[in-house]
Design brief:
This protein starts with a helix and ends with a helix. It has 3 domains: 65 residues, Arc Repressor Mutant, subunit A; 141 residues, no CATH class; 43 residues. The protein is flat and about 110 Å long. The relative contact order is 0.09. It is an alpha+beta fold and 265 residues long. Strand 6 and strand 7 form a beta hairpin. The longest helix has 48 residues. Helix 1 crosses helix 2.
Length: 265
């Protein structure tokens, strides 16, 4: 029985050891059957919906084994930070810029003397693109202020690693709290996307943000945990030293009292 175009596309993707884009799939499929590139895209989406093939990142398809072994590049979404107590703000204003797939907003609040900056990108930004967007937002604020800005506090960001076929079974959302009030919220965004959102309820600088996303939240929390453990040990050592000192002093006083009593006899 002659295989259908859908079966041919599935076979081409499953036989490849690397992810393929629709054009590469089209070239391989055309060795067996004449199919338009647009039809290949439609069929790839259909196979993806049926979990016959997988999508490690946008625009590429692979088999389950390749997908399992792949490390999907980090993507960042919806980065939001604020500047509090900006007394130089004389009126409320909002600036919006569209750069490629990203939208940048800067809101100047007169009543609360607060600047809110946000980068939104549905497809996601890599680290360099994200830092470029953050720098552009700060440039907008500095142009308005007329000088450099300080005390930038990160509030929220989403670190997105889309693993096709991975689902959160039995729950729509899973939340866990790490160290330093970094709350990690993992949820099923849609049928094929699991998103990890990091909510920061404690002050975090841009430098801390960079360190966090470069090392990953888990390793960041581990590093901070080790630091806190060392501090706790140091405090414990000081407490033991103090306690030992108190005991030595008490023993000396007891010895002195006993000598005094002996002399009186």
């Amino acid at each position: 029985m002659k295989p259908t175009p859908l079966q041919i596309i599935e076979q081409v993707v499953n036989s490849s050891e690397i992810p393929l884009n629709p054009w590469a799939i089209h070239k391989e499929v055309n060795k067996f059957a004449s199919i338009k590139p647009s039809t290949v895209r439609v069929y790839c989406r259909r196979l993806l919906e049926r979990s016959k093939i997988y999508q490690p990142y946008k625009g590429y398809y692979c088999n389950k084994i390749t997908h399992t072994l792949m490390k999907v590049p980090l993507k960042l979404h919806n980065v939001l930070f604020v500047l509090e107590n900006q007394k130089w703000i004389l009126e409320s204003d909002k600036v919006e810029e569209v750069v490629g797939d990203s939208t940048l907003w800067v809101t100047f609040g007169f009543q609360r003397k607060k600047v809110t900056c946000q980068v939104a990108c549905d497809v996601g930004l890599n680290l360099d693109a994200c830092l470029f967007a953050v720098k552009r937002l700060l440039d907008i604020v500095e142009a308005k202020k007329g000088s450099m800005v300080e005390d930038v506090v990160l509030k929220t960001f989403e670190a997105n690693r889309d693993y096709q076929g991975v689902r959160i079974d039995g729950a729509k959302c899973y939340t866990r709290k790490g160290l330093f009030d970094v709350i990690e919220r993992i949820y099923q965004k849609d049928e094929h996307t699991v998103r990890v959102e990091q909510k920061v309820s404690k002050s975090m600088s841009v430098d801390d943000f960079v360190a966090l996303i470069q090392g990953g939240v888990t390793s960041y929390n581990l590093t901070q945990g080790q630091f806190m453990l060392v501090k706790k040990i140091e405090q414990l050592i000081e407490a033991v030293k103090f306690s030992n000192g108190q005991m030595v002093g008490l023993k000396r006083r007891v010895d002195d009292m006993e000598k005094g009593n002996d002399g009186g006899c």
